[in-house]
Amino acid sequence: MRYLIVGCGRVGSTLAKLLVADKHDVVVVDENPAAFKRLGNRFAGQVEVGTGIDYDVLKRAGADRSDGFVAVTDGDNRNVMAALIAQKMFRIPKIVARIYDPPRGQLYRELGIETFSPTTIGAQIIRDRLQDVAYASVPSFDFGKLSSLVATVTRAQAGKRVDNVEVDGKIRIAAIRRLGSVSIPAPSDVLVEGDEINAIVAPDALSQFASAFSAARPDTRLSA
Asked: Is 147 strand, coil or helix?
């Protein structure tokens, strides 16, 4: 696969190196040549100096033959404009843009641009740490309408069937990690203490899920 990344900051450069390590063809575009230092001397991809909202720059970078496009500059407007050019002019099938302002992200998603918001993701992670909840938030795959959560099965949940934990239309157990092996569970599968589960949870069921996986958590406070 061939990927075009606009923005060689910390996220863009890290993503580029990950994709190259996965044996993909990668081109990184940035208007500041010094930014490419983040890629290191062994970077096996290509670089193109220029702005990601310039048609000619993207053309030189191979946008017309790219399978995926990512815009991760420091500016929301530039990311969206670059994504729109990639979508409308080059018809790249997979496009992702970073948007810091969550409300604007929803607007752009309605235009057909897939976005992610570090603001929202970061806030969710901090919330989980502050409240010491029994699950950890991971990025939503449905634009914030659903949450993908990770929790560890305690002794209280052990022995329950998957379909006893799930709630139709509210909570679905998508995967279970057990002893280093990950599987998609059947409704009749039985949970084991120490299992790590990945659950898809609707917004109005977050409290229910948190309660189920925190009610019997061991008290880790030290006695005096």
From this structure: strand
Query: At 98, is the secondary structure helix, strand, or coil?
Result: strand
- Residue keyed to tokens 């229910």: 208
Q: In whole angstroms, give the CA distance from residue 205 to residue 160.
A: 19
Specify the DSSP class assigned to residue 185: P
CB 197 within 8 A of CB 191: yes
Domains and CATH numbers, the chain: 2-116 (3.40.50.720), 120-212 (3.30.70.1450)
Q: What is the longest distance spanned by two Cα atoms in the chain?
A: 69
The pLDDT tens digits along the chain (224 residues) read 999 999 999 999 999 999 999 999 999 999 999 999 999 999 999 999 999 999 999 999 999 999 999 999 998 889 989 999 999 999 999 999 998 887 676 667 767 778 887 777 777 777 777 776 666 666 555 445 667 788 888 888 899 999 999 999 899 999 999 988 889 999 999 999 999 898 888 878 877 887 777 633 333 222 22
Q: Which of 34, 33, 67 is nearest to 48 (CA)?
A: 33
**What distance in Å separates the CA atoms of residue 139 and residue 81, rounded to the nearest whole number?**
24
- For residue 81, give the H/E element and its range: helix 76-88
pTM above 0.70, yes or no: no
What phi and psi, each to the nearest 5 degrees, are found at residue 46? -115, 160
Helix (H) or strand (E) segment spanning residue 16: helix 10-21
What DSSP state is assigned to residue 221? Answer: P
